[in-house]
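Hi Q.,

Before the meeting this afternoon, I wanted you to have the S-adenosylmethionine prediction in hand. No need to reply - just skim if you have a minute. The sequence and ligand are here:
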Amino acid sequence: MDVTAELHAYYEQDKEHLRLREGAQRLEFWRTQDVLRRILPAAPARVLDVGGGPGAHAEWLAADGYRVALLDPIPLHVERAAGLPGVTPVVGDARRLPYPDASMDAVLLLGPLYHLADRADRLLALSEARRVARPGAPVAAATINRHSAVLGMIRLGQYVHEPDRRAARAAAEGGSMLSPRGFTAYFHDPDEVAGEFADAGFGDVARYGLEGAFWLYGDVDDWLDDPVRRALMLDAQRSMESEPSLLGVSGHLLTVARKQR
Ligand SMILES: C[S@@+](CC[C@H](N)C(=O)[O-])C[C@H]1O[C@@H](n2cnc3c(N)ncnc32)[C@H](O)[C@@H]1O
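Predicted structure with the ligand bound:
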């Protein structure tokens, strides 16, 4: 069981450690942090960050006092994460976790589900997360929304170009797209994620739109640069994060379930 060569080729360019730290993607970072801080058990609980990359979230979780285990298939990511105090990283795959049953107080999958194009693989990843979670622990998974490729390309002006337009429409219709970054990504419908959680053995889910419509605003960077306006924007999105009619407009969705006791 291995991830694809295209995934290695993309992530070995070593750009991922900067992704959430600059520009409009800070909105995804701060909103993910905002939701996680409300749903996680109190520190020093043990948090497993599956597909944790170079550790953008592991870093602040460890600083908040959590004991963080991180797993990622890209050795370079694991090397970077190894430099973070309080984080124990290993090379591995979400579909086969090297941890005992019920050993984690929370499990995060902030990446693997959109990198696994086959539903059976996504169910394996969710089932493994459920296996290693202790009863009552939250399991939180990020997905990319089905229509975000069309929305994002229009925002950036790329939708006027073929083949970008064709690829974005294919993602909206069929779920998968060879992204301009060179790897195939899977784009979920929000209800589809809940169905995958159910088929992996979870009960009810809570859903959080991460960026809302704000990621589509031309001046979102200015709002994020200014601490006062940033706080207003984060608060506005928090007030409508679980509004069903708005879930699919976000670039990313966070779905959370608790392992049944
Ligand atoms: C966009 S990055 C997100 C990294 C980090 N979770 C974050 O939110 O900043 C997606 C991560 O998922 C990892 N990934 C891809 N396929 C995976 C798999 N089958 N199992 C575990 N991780 C995987 C990638 O190596 C990459 O580090």
